[in-house]
Amino acid sequence: MEAFPEISGSHYAAEKKRIMSLCNNRKGYCIADLARRLDASIPKVTRIVTEMMADGYLVELGKVESSGGRRASLFGLNPNVGYFAGIHVGHEGLTLAVTDFPGNVLHTVENIPFGLENTEESVHRLGARVRSSLETLKIDLSRIVAYGVDLTGRVNHQTGYSYSYFISEQKPIRTLLEEEFGRPVVLENDTRAMAWGEYVCGVAGDEGTILFLNVGWGLGMGMVLDGKLFYGKSGFSGEVGHFPLLSNNQYCRCGKIGCLETGASGLALHRLVTEKLAQGRTSILSPAYKKGDKISLDSILGAIDREDVLAIECIEEVGATLGHSLAGLINIFNPDLVIIGGRLSCTERYLLPPLRSTVNKYSLNIVNNDTHIKVSQLGRTAGAIGSSLLAKSLLLGNIE
User: What is the pTM assigned to this prediction?
Assistant: First the structure.
């Protein structure tokens, strides 16, 4: 499904796509810079830029600073070309983000009620819910160029299949979504989408190599290595939660024993708290536990926010376990930055001190000194924003 039919069917189509791709990564280019990047003559690039301005894809942004002589014009992406919509499909509902053509975030909406199921009918309901939310934001659906959708679990963005929501062997879920939206769709794993969102417009800044740890109910990792998302051979890289690190005899959801996720995740936090409550430890949560009420992860996070000693003790244990594994990752990747995101990142006041302490204890100083550890800036909107940005980047050829 073609996102830019006017360009794809035009003369100099490859050069136009390349110019759009270049302008996706910086504010603007002058004709001479574009000519050097495209290895083309200035007259040729001038013709191409003139056509793209006439078609509305490029606009003049201003003049290049100059110490003397005629100042060259800067050209960049036109924000009025269209929009990209990103949808994070979580267990608790949807998060929606809308970005313009240059990548500015225009809208974010959290906590849209929805639960995706393994049926085509559920995909239709997802499309209806997204369209309804976009219309509420006064977004003209005809001006959306492409959609990005991220899901939890194993996702192959090249084939468009999700192995957590495996609806049909004949049609990958991406194809079903494209039929539903009538636009190109990029399907991505939630953690990689979060990592990309933080890399492009979050806490990453100018750092080129980052590790993003999604500490939610499970544990996943997204990697941006030298400015590119890393997928691995089959597109399933980043399954750090299933690294067989622990000797706690705890069964993981994957069926193995001792996966890191069993000691460093929301699932692990929930287990630690309920185990201690069963031992008779005192907590804000004790009355509800004794009555037989369900102790949810949200109620535990709420107890931490209220400075409950038991809950804080457990999140500190999770932080120390996560820090132990992170020390090894830092030794291996030597990243510029590690970002802690996901639902448990809201406990940073208690999660980060034991995490940093354990990292310092087990990582190599010469490597650790070059790595910063920060908490996600985009929070729960990271996945939706990342998916929206990935929709454009993948279609422009910025990411393979």
Answer: 0.89
